[in-house]
Design a protein that fits this description.
About 10% of the residues lie in helices and about 45% in strands. It has about 50 residues and is mainly β. The protein has one domain (about 5-45). It is elongated, with a radius of gyration of 14 Å. The protein starts with 5 loop residues before the first strand and ends with a helix.
């Protein structure tokens, strides 16, 4: 990876018969490493649909 490159990291979990969840982060590569540039809730209670 080189500085200026941008990519998406999208891990997911799926439970047969129940459903699934996919999370997406956008990451930019900088001279100093990687920086996540997405902003979203991170607490499990904020992410659940009930």
């Amino acid at each position: 990876m080189k500085p200026g490159m941008v990519f998406s990291c999208e891990p997911g979990i799926y439970v047969p018969g129940l459903g699934g969840f996919r999370h997406s982060d956008t990451v930019v590569i900088t001279e100093d490493g990687a920086e996540i540039i997405t902003n979203y809730p991170v607490e499990i209670g904020e992410l659940l649909i009930s």
